Amino acid sequence: MSKVVITGQDLTVEQIVAVCRECAPLELSEETKKSVLESRQIVDDLIAEEKVVYGITTGFGKFSDVVISQDQCKDLQKNLIITHAVGAGNPFTKDIARGIMLLRINNLAKGFSGIRLETLQTMVDMLNKGVTPIIPEKGSLGASGDLAPLSHMVLPMIGLGLAEYEGEVLPGAEAMARAGIPTIELSAKEGLALNNGTQAMTSAGTLALYDALNLLKVADITAALDFEAQNGVVDALDHRVHDVRPHSGQLATARNLLKLLEGSKNTTRQGEIRVQDAYSLRCCPQIHGASKDAVNYVKEHVNIEINSVTDNPIIFKDDRAGISGGNFHGQPMALSFDFLKIAESELANVAERRIERLVNPAYSGLPAFLTPNGGVNSGFMIVQYSAAALVSENKVLAHPASVDSIPSSAGQEDHVSMGTIAARQAGEIGRNVRRVLAMDLMVACQGIDMRGNKGLGKGTQAAYDLVRKEVARLEEDRPLYDDINYCENIIADGSLVKAVEEAIGGSIEL
Q1: Which residues, renumbered to this chain, carry the PTM 2,3-didehydroalanine (Ser) (predicted)?
Q2: CATH topology of domain 203-310+338-404+415-502
């Protein structure tokens, strides 16, 4: 597995996934080490000169006007962490927790934070040796950074809190000892350098984004299968229709569907069976395309954030200044992840409508609920119910978290982003969307069989074959959850997209 070299400048979404989910090793570049040492020297000089700099020689938040003496600096940093570690709820998943550490490392590696090199190396060692802090997922306002989650991240480093090591949740000190990593004592500025930033929201949101990019491709695959099952009218995909309204996602979706359906004998032309399809088929390029454009917008902003400095104060080497600003404020990510939530939700909204059109005999012209023997058999009746429930839940979760703000720190921090809530909701919505698309995948294959398969397209044939490898045509009622689970698994592990892309000889466009 390729090693990820941390420079603070060029971390990618794909590298984040490799470290977080595949445990790819990482190391600090030599230039990074030099920059970190130079930044630290400035902090030491500021303390020696007794300069008034926020969080280094002052208290925090409302206490920013309280000057801290040199002999209190270490207590200040430790107290910052232990009092701010007040998260709530279930722990973040392991991949998100690892992402929080990785993104904080990359932020600190830029050399604007004044952290000691040995402290930064401790975090690298924890990732490489598999010590994962237990970080509660709730309790961040998303401004002043993700204070509570990042403080929980730090606790095992100082011998406190909890961490997972080799599949076991242990006291932080014990996890570090078993991994052979010495705990540390925080020095001046280090507590603030570790817990003031947007890394919790950005980790959760980046992994949700990565999964959403896969779902965009899957949505085009399931829509193409629905075209097959419903004798869809492919004239609506004609490039001329989309050339005169050239949104990039719309153009890409229309091209994708034509590639997937190439060679199909089930689709129709305008007027052969009907003049036009319902919107859930006919407007797929416009609907899926708008979500593609939105998700690509989010990716652009995530790529900026993962390589940015979100610390406070920021240490500048040119004039040896420590400037207090607001780069910890999560608003750029909060709005982005709220946008991601909406874009994802729409994929499930339209997929559920396509499921309904197949199971409803008034729309499909097929036996009700796609069962040959209705009455004693319910067929796919409740599959649509379940999809509708997930879609409805998404509508609640998609409400923008960023429109809310509650002042904190006695009014000093009077506007906050709630971006971490948005990021968590984006992940939850994505999981719901994946389940709905799995149902759409299964229902479409049943619809194709019941309609009478005259011959599938290049891409749809590959998708159909992969589904039918484990999911048989439904003749009599049987438990369906295993079938749905299989369809969801081939979506989640990427095997569906891989099989289809191999069949069409190229990538499904985003």
Answers
A1: 144
A2: Fumarase C; Chain A, domain 2 (1.20.200)
